[in-house]
Amino acid sequence: MARLRTSPTRPVRLLLLLLLGTGTQAAEIQFNRDIRPILSDKCFLCHGPDSGARKAGLRLDLEETAKARLKDSDLFAIKPGDPARSEIVHRIFETDPDEMMPPPESKLSLGPAEKEILKAWIAQGASWEGHWAYIAPRKIRPPAIEDPWIRNDIDRFVLERLRREGLKPAAEADRRILLRRASFGLTGLPPSASDLDAKEPYEATVERLLGSDRYGERMTTDWLDLARYADSYGFQRDNNRYVWPWRDWVIGSFNRNQAYDEFITWQLAGDLLPDPSDEQILATTFCRLHQQKVEGGTVEEEFRVEYVADRTHTFGTAFLGLTLECARCHDHKYDPITSRDYYRFFAYFNNIDEAGLYSFFTQAVPTPVLAMTSDAQRKRLDQLNAEVEAAKADLARVRKEAEPAFADWLKGPLPPAHIPGLLARVSFDEEQVGKHGNAANEKKAASTSNRNTSIPGRHGRALELTGDDAIKIETGAFNRAQAFSVALWMRTPEHKERAVIFHRSRAWTDSASQGYQLLLEEGRLSASLIHFWPGNAISIRTKDKLGLNTWQHVTLTYDGSSEAAGLTLYVNGRAADCEVVHDQLSKGIAAGGVKHFAMGERFRDRGFARGAVDELVIVGRCLSELEVRHLHDGSSLQGAIDARDPKLFDWYLATASTTGQAAAQHLQAKRATRDQHANSFTEIMVMRERSRPRQTYVLHRGHYAERREAVDAHTPAWLPSGALDHPANRLGLAQWLTDPGHPLTARVAVNRYWQMHFGQGLVQTTEDFGSQGSPPSHPELLDWLAYRFIASGWDLKALHRLIVHSATYRQRSLPNPETFRRDPENVLLARGPRMRLSAEMLRDHALAASGLLVHKIGGTPAKPYDLKESFKPMNHDKNENLYRRSVYTYWKLTGPSPVMMALDAVKRDACTVKREPGSSPLQALVLLNGPQFVEAARVLAEGLMKDFPSDPDRCIREAFRRLTSLEPTDVQRKILRDMLDDQRKHFQGNPDAAKQFTRVGLRKPGEDLDPVELAATTSMISLLMNFDASVVLR
Amino acid sequence: MNLCTGFEQASGGSRRQFLNRFGSGLGGIALADLVNPARADTLPAAPHHAPRAKRIIYLFQSGGPSQIDLFDHKPMLNKMHGQELPDSVRKGQRLTGMSGNQSSLPIAGSPFAFSRHGESGAWLSDLLPHTAKVADDLCFVKSMYTEAINHGPAITYLQTGSQIPGRPSFGAWLDYGMGSANDNLPTFVVLVTRNKGGQPLISRLWGSGFLPSRHQGVRFRSGADPVLYLKNPTGVDDPSRRMLLDRLQEMHEVQFAEIPDPEIETRIAHYELAYRMQSAVPEVTDLSDEPAHILDLYGPDVKTPGSFAANCLMARRLAERGVRYIQLFHQGWDQHGSLPGGIRKQCRETDQASAALIKDLKQRGLLEDTLVVWGGEFGRTNYCQGKLTQNNFGRDHHPRCFTMWIAGGGIRPGTSYGQTDDFSYNLVDGGVHVHDLNATLMHLFGIDHERLTFKYQGRRFRLTDVHGHVVRPILA
Question: Is-cis flag, bond preceding A493, omega within 30?
Fold first, then answer.
């Protein structure tokens, strides 16, 4: 379908007016309408905002510089009123390739009309205007014209323009056409047979449609394109993701007519609202709907930056109508968006605990997340938390009460020093490298490759590691409620940027690994328990660096609390001074099915190369400081025993006190129950600010690793809105965006909804309100609508009502020859809209007309027949999901619904605010042969045959009405009757074929109908489903 | 809307007729400029110069075939087998996260024997005996390079000129710029080898990005319905369908008389083209009329529907029928481990059929104006990923140099272009970037890659972004 831009033809038309003196009024050159588009498109590339690309120091996007004396010259680029002394006039008419502008190598050229207009503009005085879109809409009075045609103020703007152009509006469309137009426009569905018969006043129809739940579904379909919604992560591997609750929130939000400013504020920053509800947080899933990566070997930061960039671009396209992405690598070529401006927007979205990769080996949801809990689940969690607290109090009480018993015990005969609960004790004393005995459990020996070498150790012998060969022991399967400790002697030759000392996990963070680990990072020890890094983990790091080339004893203890405070690192028997890196662990650390505790190496991570380890000890309990010290010096515990030291209290409780042991076990059991419950919660990706802000940098050429100037979140000064003191976070951004003084937000929104109803916006480039975008066809109308939208409290239903009530909307769509010649694209609105039904509407139409459509709002995505034919084939559903509205169709980014794609849906791999519906032979095949459509045709045929037995003419009429909302003309009736008769004759000769044809789809036909008549009627209806009047809204 | 491209051609006259019916009026200004100004200033008329190629068959080897074991003969690697890759060669360049953290990067020489072939004396390993026989028809570009180090971005880069999804694919650009050269088939057809695992392929690799969706590639599935819902529903035979289409056309003609909207004529034309495709597509995908000596040429796999060999033969049939862009994908070249066995299997699947396609096109005089491209998204490392053992090793992704071969359609045959260092690690001479390759292929179609642009979101986009140089030395 043609979607033509009118701006390039404008110079032609304008020039004709200038040269021929024809037209209804004198040709007046307007800078923003006539000149800026030419300068922007043909000159700004080298003489525009991008200082890096600017040639000859000449800048033509600002009046001041454009009219200034040229650098090192007496000449002027533009001398108002004096084309002869304006250098650009000479240059654009120049034919010498060395002198002409634009230069040949730019592959840009000016048409003769464009050159003449530039010259004429300079001759007229070169009047300048700021770019319209950056100046806030003013309160505008609709033109004071009266005409019986006018129904509301929209029409005054339109009619005023038509009068200027010497055109007349078209007559009002037929009632049924209008009903069809509004039904699809507001609900995405056709009017029902009874709607067509009811003599409901149009205004009442509009109210009924706006009040229908179908309205929210219709509005959501478009919002899903804008939000790049998909049920899979995209990029290459494209696993499933769970985000549809957000889609359902959007439907509900539209249906209850949430104010648009609040609607977008929640999606950008619901989590930052005071005391946010789960619903407000859920809205921010919007910001996480970009594609995500899992491909092995990927540089995590590269894609994290890509995610933030996607959020920034989506924000620009969806809300500002600006192509922010152009300024990612350099200053914008056409608009005043500097690269710095870009990264200051970027900074707003750069502050969550996320990873550039989602989990390869586990089902962990990329953080930050919201637990989608029911009231019952939350109540149960509260109760289990209370029980954990009670168990903690109980333990404290037991400790207190154990003091007298301890005092008695201390006086009696004491056991020798020992550490109970050992799971592993490996000395590495064997000279033969390979198998290393485990003194705590003979069956679970340590094993390693003989590429590691045996060396003299801290005690006996030790192992020196290659970094590529792990030492493995089948033990250490701890859940996060389980207290445990790991101790070893280690010696490192260097501080190392990163090295794995020990871990229990599948792979490093490039696979978003789960488990626990001890790393050496820049000489510091770092211990973590991880569900999903970095947003669902506890992690601490020592402040001091480890000494080099010397044996040091290192112990990690964990108390089962799921808190960073429960982690302690000891170096040489002393608790090390640590900082908390992460303190948010709410899900399991099951390690993705790994069976081993491992030292010195991890899949695709950096191993402990040339590091040495000795005397590994693993204990299923949180060791006391005394015990840790004992592991270090081999004597502390015995010394305390000998001295009958009260410091033995913890050791006593853990080893000798039955009440102490029982209380500790009770606490652990309570935690395990609580954790198990929490582990079952379904999570959804949302936004949550980091506790410590992440610094944003200008990235040179947009490259993730090329950091330059540090910048903070801020909105650009050239785009002011009334909100001055907004905080430097996403909530502040939303406040800035939704301030009534913002020049773009309301315009961009009303333009998009205008496009929804007219097929094209008042600004045709819905996605670009910048310098390269097309100027508005009706600037005053756009501003009036925007102003009114804001004044109405951003009331979307009121906006739709206003548009569809207008006489402009109600016109017939058929142009008369004169208006078509003058305005083939209907920019002037001398006729009503004409649009091919969208992909979703075409399918929903067939389902609705046949009565198959299942009216159920929300829920898990549906998999209709065609997903079996997708590039990533999957089984289709075999239940009512086959007949649900297309807004619910499961969307897999690497293999989206082939029917939707053939019918010109967008892929949704990036924010899209405009589709380009056309026609193609592939569409014909889908509508003629696709089982969804064939089945729907047959089900409709069945229904009609039952309603009007032995009355084929009535069936034809009803089918025609259901599928076109119109009465068939006599000619149409005859063609369809001939068709039916011919098909009947055909199937009479092929009764088996008739049976087969009527069995397409899961829904089987009733046995009572004659298959031949049913097949013939189905064919006739199939024809109608492919007929222009059924496919195109007119 | 492009009056002169793609499926629009079938109904190209309609808008013009409509305008003429009402009198177009504006005298000297080109009609085309009026009805499609967005195109008027970007693509006055492709071709921009005399084309050498009319069609292209792109044999994409997905996963990244090892240049070291197939084309880029490096005895130095055998000499230094097992030794650490010298820092002087690697120069601290970024590695993937898969081998980047290995403590040791031992060099792995190719275990396959290399020899010279044809008059041109092209070096090839003994994994490619059939390719060796057509070496004099091929141009080996040994100095390909890219910036992407992982599959998703790298394939997307070659196919769309951008590592990040969203841009139109090469075939879509060509369809947009040149339109169809046949009446019954799509312009841009994609064939994927069936039952291959490995790195996933993605439908955006033949997508239309921001170009209208009709320019996207049509993937022919191996099976009964090569095109989505090509076949009539069960129980509907050809006469019944013809009857329906005739009546539908009648309805549309009546509608057009009432509502003279050119889109209605377009719709009529599209239903007719769909109908023709219903016979043309099964005809082209049915290999049963190929004589035995041709089947033998492509090798035994040719009888397995969906095999690479069958797809090569189908590619020739599509080329004969004027399909402009024929894109094959063959997965499975991603040999991080067990390379020797893996690459042998890949070569068994692809070597004979690739060479057969060249011979077959040549004997029909089609090679002259048909481009054939063979290669993957990047090369592989000279060092071993994982453990280097006596009989086994793997290679990681290597973007800094890799080999592709191109033949026919104005490419200089029997040549080798560009040079890598003794380690097949860095480029020494004649680097050909992804954008350079695309610019060169476009050039052979008579298209100036800088002038085939589409304005989207305020910017003129093109396949080669703001880069790309035609590699003139490889042109015939």
Answer: no
